[in-house]
Amino acid sequence: MSEELNASAVADYLCQHPDFFQDYPQLLDQLQVTHRQKGVLSLVEAKLQRQRDQLQRQQQELDTIHKMAEHNERMFFSLLPLQTRFSQAKRLPDGLTILQDWTTALGLQKGTLLLFRDSWVESEEIAAHNWLDRTAFEIIRLERFGLQRHYLGTLTHREKTLLLLPEDFPVGSVAVCLLGKRKSRHPYTAVLLFAAKDERHFHRHQETTFLQQLAEMVEQHLDHWLIEKI
């Protein structure tokens, strides 16, 4: 206990007297600090190394921010041609093909729309695997979404089999977004789904602004491709 108190007292004294080593410069070379990579350093060397480490961390943070900015810029600009192609699509199957082509170009495994049966008038041109039962999905929504309209992360095998086809497996992680307008009879009428093979590709700490803008774009076109139940 006395050693802890003495160490604390020394630390407090040095903080209160920052010019202490001006009177005792020889201590700067005599006192030593152990560095994980550099070994034993003098106080002067330790301070310089600390500054170099801080500069390196700051540079790494700047590089990360720069890469994220470039990535976001590419993603946002990719929405422009996607919007144009969606506008040219007359039917939902055409829109789904466009969405999958865009998804593949981004290096993702799957991009699709799932429609709730109680929200849209069914059509023969819409494949069975694009329809979704609301009651079955509600279990996933309560477990994964909470109060949010999107979920990014991994799913259990049972959850994957509800949302994806057998040929889509293996699936590592997903980004799922609820679609629906305020005037709709239900709070959400469809699901926008993206899948990646890498479990780390989608995760809950990701920025979702881009996903939200993409969801809003798709919502605008659903009314042109489908007839909503009243």
Distance between the termini: 75 Å
**Structural class determined from secondary elements:** alpha+beta
Number of helices: 8
Strands of the largest sheet, in order across it? 4-3-7-6-5
Overall radius of gyration:
28 Å
> What is the CATH level 1 assignment of one domain?
Alpha Beta
Main sheet specs:
5 strands, mixed
Strand runs, count: 7
* CATH H-tier superfamily of one domain: GAF domain
Poorly predicted sequence stretches spanning 5 or more consecutive residues: none
Fold-level CATH name of one domain? Beta-Lactamase
Average pLDDT, rounded to a whole number, is 83
List the topology elements:
Elements: H1 2-16, H2 20-23, H3 26-30, E1 32-35, E2 39-42, H4 43-88, H5 92-105, E3 110-116, E4 131-132, H6 134-145, E5 150-153, H7 157-163, E6 173-179, E7 190-196, H8 209-225
Parallel strand pairs: 3-4
Antiparallel strand pairs: 1-2, 3-7, 5-6, 6-7
Helix pairs in contact: 4-8
Characteristics of this structure?
five-stranded mixed β-sheet; alpha+beta; 230 residues; 7 strands
Can you put this structure into words, describing what you see?
With 230 residues, the protein is α+β, with helices and mostly antiparallel strands. It has a domain at 90-225: GAF domain (Beta-Lactamase, 2-Layer Sandwich), CATH 3.30.450. 52% of the residues lie in helices and 15% in strands. It has eight helices and seven strands; from the N terminus they run H-H-H-E-E-H-H-E-E-H-E-H-E-E-H. The termini are far apart. 17% of the residues are buried. The mean pLDDT is 83.
